[in-house]
Fold these 2 entries.
Entry 1:
Amino acid sequence: MDTVPRARLAAGRAGERRGWGRGHHTTAGSGTTARRGGGRGGGKKPKILEGTEGPSDGGRNRVQPRARTEHWDARGAQEAGRGGSGRGVLPAAPGARLTLRPVHGSTMGSRHFEWIYDHVGHFGRFQRVLYFICAFQNISCGIHYLASVFMGVTPRHVCRPPGNVSLVVFHNHSNWSLEDTGALLSSGQKDYVMVQLQNGEIWELSRCSRNKRENTSSLDYEYTGSKKEFPCVDGYIYDQNTWKSTAVTQWNLVCDRKWLAMLIQPLFMFGVLLGSVTFGYFSDRLGRRVVLWATSSGMFLFGIAAAFAVDYYTFMAARFFLAMVASGYLVVGFVYVMEFIGMKSRTWASVHLHSFFAVGTLLVALTGYLVRTWWLYQMILSTVTVPFVLCCWVLPETPFWLLSEGRYEEAQKIVDIMAKWNRTSSCKLSEFLSLDLQGPVGNSPTEVQKHSLSHLFYNWNIATRTLTVWLIWFTGSLGFYSFSLNSVNLGGNEYLNLFLLGVVEIPAYTFVCIAMDKVGRRTVLAYSLFCSALTCGVVMVIPHKHYILGVVAAMVGKFAIGAAFGLIYLYTAELYPTIVRSLAVGSGSMVCRLASILAPFSVDLSSVWIFIPQLFVGTMAFLSGVLTLKLPETLGKQLATTWEEAAKLESENESNSSKLLPTTNNSGLEKTAAITPRDSGLG
């Protein structure tokens, strides 16, 4: 731990009247929001640097540390947004003592650390290397999230006969082998395959049952005589023209066991839900770097374990834990890279992390096309994470987390390395540490106010806003996974379908980054939702034989819903005041994951009517688009710090924000400061 000359810094009564050291402060280290009030500050704080009483000369022969402070109440937030007085140097005056100590959860506020990025670079070579290393692992997450599109395919099938077959008849054609007849059966209940066994018995084989004819003298396909029905106790014969084996064929997850196949993706998404909460907590306790290594190693191990599962339940358990670690990486990896990237590049960098997830979708389509055996397919996809596992140990811990743990020297080393890589001048963290002005002895510290879910229903207007935002989160996730999982039902080449639906996501995120600062968040979001609803309707009226038009319409819908899904993270953070911003985004992400659990069931209902997924998504998207028009526009408007400011967003004049820093940068900073790893909605 570096030592600091013990010094007594004085501030006179004039300074006290100005109220230095009081107000609210938003930390960025652990992503929590804390209140700095009173002279001592709120909450329990670990000591890192503390000024103590100096020698008898009053420290005249010692270097005085530069003291910086920042107002963070409602008025102070405005000053900070303008880059104004919140950045000044405290004058020395007698009467009070300044103490260097961290605020709750971090040693410096988010704006203080932005000054460090001004020195070492916002997105220099160091940050770019870390960004692309961590973003590469997002590809693996995208792979495992959508691997079940092909791994869980249910091929056409018939019951296996109870003996060796000597003759196969299907609609009076007898030149078929039994292995080829599975592809001939449609979903109709009247179709069956007639076989004659070597012992002379004649059986009618359908998809989920088999019937033994009493009269063995007639080989006619149409039979009106008596017959006896038997269950498929000998298993099934599957069509292997497309896939040699899937998880469904491996454990006969058809007919009365079909519901087990329907649980493959929903249970995975439930693991995603638990993983984001679990590993977000561990990243706050153990550090980002440890969790990144643990989750990445887990993705490889559980991915391989799923490939070599000996039974269905082992397979599902491996997939569940795979979902937890993949979700944990997405959440913690997002926080990790955002804590290294400066304000000027943070929004673009955060949005385009989704693009690497989309690359994983492309690899799923490519691997599925080349490898048609499910366990080999799963094993190959799991090896994509190996490069990151081998090199992630060289990744440094974030200075934010190190400072929150009181590890000042290590944080300083990371900043020095960052400056060296970026070929810039380094800086001393001690010059940027937040300062608390101690008040009179005996003053009790101000307690940090906690907020519950009920605060998102502060009044009628805020409650309506919350329900609308939740609906948009739900629709975005439902549409995103419905389009992807339903790609096999669009007709044509299912591998090309998924590939194209993954490709359109990448320009969708670029479109969001550009359009949201040109025409506004609300306009882009509403346009995207309406466009998605329209394309769902178009898909429903296109005849199935013109499947190319259906695929093109689905691509447009995926582009639109991807744009909405990428924008809702930022828009939600801007719609709520600082005190509940993390809660708002976290609750929205939970609703999002609920939709991801339900999306596979919606796709499974396509067996009842092929357009049910489009009907659900289109209806929800249209309703969400209409309600989005009722939300306030946040482009060019200052981030709210109080409920009153949040309620007045609709009536704020955009000209009031002309002196603000660019809204995208401010919101990107605040979003990173407000979203904890446990609340991040990614995945």
Entry 2:
Amino acid sequence: MNEEELQKKREEAERKARRGEIDPTHEFTFHIIGQFSGLLRHEIMDYMFNDPAMLDHLDFLFKSDNARKLLFYFQPEETRTSGLELIPRMKPMDMEKSAEQKKMMKKGAKNPMIEKGKEEEKKTTKKILFTTDGYAVPLNGYCMYFLRTSTKRTLGEETFQREIMAGLINATMNENLLWYIERSVSNVFIPLLNTNGMMDKGTDQLLFKVKKELLPCLRSFTSSLRVAELVWKEGVLIKEFPPESYTIKNIDDAFAFLKTDDGQRRFEEYLRSWMKKIQELLLESEQLRLETDDAGPQDELEYWKSRAARLTLLVEQINTMPCKMTLVVLRTAQCKLMKAWREIDVRITRYHVEACDNAKFLGAIEKSSHAIYLEDPANMKTPLMRLLHIVKMIFNVSTFYNTPERVASLLVKITNQVIRSCKRYITNSGRDSIWSQDRDHIEVKLTECIKLNDHYRDAYQKVKNRKVGRELREFSFSEKYIFGRFDAFCVRLKNLLGMFRKISLYTKLFENRMEALLSEDSMDEEFKSFDSSVRILTLKDYDYLDFRNTHFDKDYADFQVRIDILTEKLRTKLENTYDGIWDTPHSFQYLARFERLAQVLPIGGMVDKYQRMINTFRTEMDRIMKFFKKQQLNAPVPRNYPSTAGRIYWVRSLLYHLKHFIDHFEEEENLKQMPEYKKLIRQYNDAGVVLMKFEINVQESWKNPRIRQIEEMIAKPVLKSNVTGDLQVNFDTYLYNFLKENERLCKLDIPLPSINQFLIKKKNWFYEFKDMIDMMLFKYTSSINSVVPDLKKLFGPHLNKVRSALDPGVADINWTTHEWKEFTEACLADIEAFKECSYNEYRIYVDST
């Protein structure tokens, strides 16, 4: 881009700023850059106007679907143009001269390279802000990065801040650069990628790769950074060499140097200082290591990696020419210190080989150990088994890492990390407490962590008992030492689980008012006591998952005491309220509720309640049987019931009353297990036999059909004359009761003879026939009575005609005649004609008078 095009871009950016086209995404970026770099907004705008391409890069990040990152460098201007040429490279000769330069600095001389660097720094104090891809320009200032977490969604003006991740890398101080990178990856990117917040950021295949490939790589990368940072901070061990050692090239130069005054003594002083520092380093391998209580297997690996790196650096320093020439001079002079040096050199070699060997073998567990850092407890079973197999292999194959103490310590570290992963899983990486999450969800988490302890022990036992090839050592260690902390942690989890379950239980009991057995007003005091107990326990500020914290144990014990007192109050209130109900038939309505409460609360006294219910039923059976024996000869027949059906219905009601009780007993398994229940069943069976015998006897007395009597009743004429000569319905009362009796018996499902069944089918015939005769006689009687007495002689012929129409009912028509409808219709027609005639005559009579 030439100067003219750059000027046009600059002018266009200024016009956009004046027109207010700097949108919220730009302002958000300027604010972040200002926070990280300390620049003011107008200074940032000046840099943007000087390099308008930065605004284009911003628009590409926020508005394009392809952009994922944007880097801003704020550092001296020369580094942008000089590129990689500004990276200082130290030649081997310069490394040899560094010790001499440091010696000169101690004597007060100025280091020419430092002075040169200060002069260059004065020349390059001007810093600029620019964008870069991170490859072309080296970083020696501030790097402000902006990352998009997803390109699937368009960034809106209100949501773009949630989709952009910003950070800072400070390279102005070399000793902090590794610290910045390692902490950013460990504390920001790994937790973000390992949380459920990434579930909507990509496909299942991509998320699987992130979990199984990217995150393990990032963990290994940060582990290497921590090792490098540790070695960088400790620096080189041998920092000074004798100045003359740079000039000595062979044995002749050594002899020549020994002839100088104090030459040997000065070399011995250097060697003594080296031996002192080396001795301090070697003592770490011979002394007990100070470790944190929650150190994991990655810490063990990093320790041996850093130790191997430090010893390797020490060996490389010993192999440098100045060090070698120093030792050659002292060996030539037959210095007595060389004997001690040779011992130290042997120890260096042994410890160096040990550290490298241990780092190599422990590196084998790094890949398998990623799972216990990243996975949830439900997915750790297989990785733990694989990890224990590798530890067993190291124990049997490694030359140095084969002592029971070291391997047991490694297993403890694995246990520590499993505990930390469980805590991370329970608290969602520290973002939530156990009280801020859904109670059912947190109970599932606690249960999975407890199950993991069992799986871990099972895996250890399987690996321990499995023999592969010729194992030189038995893989057996103190289980209390290895699993003791996990067991203590699980005890804490079980206490928390019990606490949550009790809180959920009592919350539910108060919501449903103790299975609707108590009113809200009566439980108000107990609810306040429960709420106070929960509030006291939940407002503590300590870590509930720290099993070494004894404060929770005391608070949990107090909570248990309060809950026990509360339970006793509720139990007493229930007993006092429903004490008399167990001696009544209504006890079955409440028994199931009390049994459900007894499963979750120590209500007690259920056996006594069962005994009282059995005694109540036994008393009720005695009362029923006394009543039956007293009334069996004169049974109380229900209303509208015939005698036989009424007695059967009565005895069945008594039996049903007893069966209602026994059916409830049959539904209660706890009642059936009572010893008195068998006696109760025998008594019930005896009572049932007596009642059923009574019913059978009644049925047998009714099953005699008495066919002759029935034939006589239905063969009678439908009409008859009384003493005064008036007509009446000749329907036998016994036949009517017989039909009603059969109808009721049939409804009671009692088997009847065929003649009875036939009559039941014909009952509507008889009822309709009788009703029609009743209606006919009613109309006949009303028509005769409506005739005026003065006109009765006049209507004599008409009355005789009507009476003669009814005469067949007195002689020929009986209750089995099929032509009864024609007979009644003819009679009704004559009656209607007579009624009409009498009415007309009555009108004439009234008009004439």
